[in-house]
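agent> Task received from the user: take the single chain below, predict its 3D structure, and emit structure tokens. No templates, no multimer pairing.
agent> Plan: (1) validate residues, (2) run structure prediction, (3) serialize to tokens, (4) report one or two observations.
agent> Step 1 OK, no nonstandard residues flagged.
tool_call: predict_structure(input=
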Amino acid sequence: MQDKQYHVLVLCTGNSARSILAEVLFNVLGKGKFIAHSAGSKPAGRVNPFALELLQQQGFSTEGLRSKNWDEFAAPGAPQIDFIFTVCDNAAGETCPVWPGKPATAHWGIPDPAAVTGDDAAKRAAFRKASEQLARRIQLFLSLPIASLDKLTLKEKLAEIGRIKD
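)
tool_result: status=success, residues=166
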């Protein structure tokens, strides 16, 4: 019998940096058990080049990555989402679409690496730090015994992960 696959949606306002990094990390670290998607309330229309560069340097595929509107995942025919994570404070405070199936949600705020000013080295360092913070939270999430947790306990665990100070 095959284990259940979970669909994860990572939200950020622009869907160009943090949520893109998290989408790829979930798909890689989740090893097929988790299928991740990302979207934004006001998509930038392009993926940040520093995010693409970092992912490629880490050996991850960037094929098919794009900045998407979150309405795609609330529309008929969209994948049934099991978990939704907001990774920016703006998206956490916005009114989201109604998600079919009542997925578990949590806010995992990460500072925006795309907002860092300075030279390219400073920007690359900010993207590396955001990726490391996301990877740590995702690994903690993946270690949870999801199938054996009741909804309230799961929600508490997801919130705890979001409060981790990296």
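agent> Step 4: summary for the user.
The CA atoms of residues 150 and 156 lie 10 Å apart.
agent> Done.
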